[in-house]
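Interim report, section 4.2 (structural modelling).
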Amino acid sequence: MASLTSLAGAAPHAPALPRPPLPALGAGAAWLALAGATYALPEAGDFPYTASFAGGALGAGLALPVLALLAGRLGRAGASLTHWTPWLAVVALAFLAWELVTAKFGLLPMPFFPPPQAILEVFLEDWPKLGGSILASLKLLAGGYLVGAALGFAAGVAIGWSKAVGYWAHPVLRFVGPLPATAWLPLAFFVFPSSWSASTFLVALATGFPVTVLTWSGVAGVNKAYFDVARTLGASPRFLVLRVAIPAALPHVFVGLFMGLGGSFAVLVVAEMLGVKSGLGWYLQWAQGWAAYANMYAALIVMALMCSGLITLLFRLRDRVLSWQKGLVQW
Amino acid sequence: MVAAATLRRPAAQEAGARLTVDSVAHAFEIRGAALPVLDRISLDVEPGAFVALLGPSGCGKSTLLRLVAGLEPPDEGRIAVDGARVSGPDPSRLLVFQDPTLYPWRTVRGNVALGLEARGLGRERAARADAALRLVGLDGFAEVYPHQLSGGMAQRAALARALVNDPRLLLLDEPLGKLDALTRLAMQAEILRLWQETRFTALLVTHDVEEALVLAERVIVLSDRPAAIRADIRVERPYPRHRDDPELVRLRREILGILGQPT
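Predicted structure of the assembly:
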């Protein structure tokens, strides 16, 4: 309140005076414009959630300038709000354009391009099915990814460390590894007892190959002087693997884990579309089959959030494990 | 055996190890051809002595240190420490490399404690590492990661990583080679102080004549590859030495003459 009264009061040239939150006012105006256009303009179709969507936009438009004024006292959340304000304005304008070309002016063919309120409707009405699909996808992904990453890591260390293992594993890896995991799909679905275990296998395969190769190259590329140091200090072979080779290879291992995660998403969606009768891939397929395009977009949005969230999680893990590295890329 | 949390041994164990190198020859194999690097080197280093191996770069000095450290077996000849043949690495014989080669994923304390950890000496590991860091003047840097250290500080940490194991023979492979001139002078004084305090036997490889003369009691001049001993010079001047000492200036000229350099 003190800052508000001093703002309203005298001394416009005082150096301590906070700048009027112009970007926040702009962003607020954009959300208010979205609310007004959504509510007031006539629409070509019957959308039960138009008013709710307009209400949400109205709330955002009113809250933004107020929150921006309080940003100084909100700590990290406030700083983050200030940082993202221009983006929030652009998002409102994008929603406005989307609203206008779909529901309001009907410039895009209707069933294929639903307005934002139709997608809001999906989230509010169909959330049990959508939520169940997320859980099913996560379960399948987690199982396959963890198995693939663990086996790939162990194989990579073994190949990088032992010449004998390298001799036998290298040709197999070279021959089979580059094959896309999805190519195994027809085979996997009749070899494995259930479509769930087949899909887990495929996700593990897609994860395992990059993790193996990157772990292997990480272990093989460890500075030989690190081993000399440890050997003169009396290290056992076990110590050389666990305390020297593996920590030194971890930056490479994480590159493999990132590549594996990306690959596992692709396999997951394909496996769910073709085999498993659950998960976001299946939801997408189902929505398309029923021409429920709003559901399809909703599932795509959820899938993007899920994948991005998992990548962020892996980045957090890397930042924690590799905190000793300098110049890490910020995600 | 070793008193915990301290680096000093009891007086009876204080003396360094005796090193005997007996007609050691060694060659590298490069694309099928043998490249001889050491030509029947024989050398006897008394316990607690500070000996410098001086020679042109690439002459095989570092190879000799690797053999003494037990990282590789010599092709011919015998290396013994206190009469026992060297058959592999041992923490009583430690090598300090030209690069500090600290593990970037460990803090300075974690790096210094490496030898204790590798040998399963868990008890008071951190305290002993901290004592070693104090010894090299790095107290306060225990929690820091290596990339935050300057070159001189990293080399100090590498020295502490060796000294925490109470080595009886310290092999120094041009440890100051990559430091700037001022840091180098400070580190020379530091190495001298550590040697005088803990009395390990020191074998220093260098191609810097002044460094050898300021530090060592004995300077062994090696020829170009394959290295053979050209001269074995005693430097009988008290410490701390000054590089303008007329005796050292005379020895410097003599050594440069042996190495075939214009003085």
